[in-house]
Amino acid sequence: MIGSKKWKFLLFIFILIGMSIEGRNNIKKELQIKGEYSNYPMEKMIEWINLNTRNDSIFAGTMPTMANLKLSTHRSIIVHPHYEHKKIRHRVKLVYTMFSRNPLRHIHSILKQYQVNYYVYESHWCTITNRPKGCSFPEMYDIDEQDPRILTRTTLACQTLESHPQPYFKRLFNYEHLSIYEVL
């Protein structure tokens, strides 16, 4: 009769072998999937940036888009995916005020302070409505807002950017949900 420890060890080995066979089959199956990542609006935007902006231009926008922009165009960005730095978190919060109730002139002054030449705007970020109460951009900014005139505004800065960007911004590029605005 096999000892208890030896029996447990053999059982462990058989289970491990079974899992390894199934795991190997799963890996083979996944490696056979052929595909290609495609984000045509982003590709068009990157192409436009490479053709129409200077190499020393500075961009602002949402973190995921800025990461792609930096990687693909080597242009400077003021928000960065290394979000653990306190200064960068503060800058992200300032740039994301585009989705708050603040007036467009306020966002313009923030971007000018950081010498931003272009703002990359994604319209779907302005219209996110499927958030739980208290989790939308305007509600998050309302928590810190002290000015009652801003709290009573019903129009978001991003909505004003879309409809009346002048005299602070000029739209230079638009493709589907992506737009590039020059900071005037």
Strand content: 5-15%
Largest sheet: 5 strands, mixed
Count up the domains: 2
CATH architecture of the largest domain: 3-Layer(aba) Sandwich
Count of helical stretches: 9
Strand order across the largest sheet: 2-1-3-5-4
Distance between the termini: 86 Å
What helical percentage do the residues reach? 40-55%
CATH class of the largest domain: Alpha Beta
The helix/strand class is alpha/beta
Mean pLDDT: 86
Number of strands: 5
Question: How does this model look, in words?
Answer:
- The protein is α/β, with parallel strands linked by helices.
- It has two domains: 1-35; 40-183, Rossmann fold (3-Layer(aba) Sandwich).
- Helices cover 52% and strands 12% of the residues.
- The protein has nine helices and five strands.
- The chain has helices at residues 4-31, 40-52, 63-73, 86-95, 104-113, 123-126, 137-144, 148-151, 157-163; strands at residues 58-60, 76-77, 118-122, 169-175, 178-183.
- Strands 2-1-3-5-4 form a five-stranded mixed beta sheet.
- Strand 1, helix 3 and strand 2 (76-77) form a beta-alpha-beta unit.
- The chain is elongated.
Summary of the model, kept short:
Keywords: Glycosyltransferase, Membrane, Signal, Transferase, Transmembrane, Transmembrane helix. The protein has 184 residues and is an alpha/beta fold.
Helix and strand layout, with pairings?
Blueprint: H1 4-31, H2 40-52, E1 58-60, H3 63-73, E2 76-77, H4 86-95, H5 104-113, E3 118-122, H6 123-126, H7 137-144, H8 148-151, H9 157-163, E4 169-175, E5 178-183
GO molecular function: mannosyltransferase activity
Organism: Rotaria socialis
Family: Belongs to the dpy-19 family.
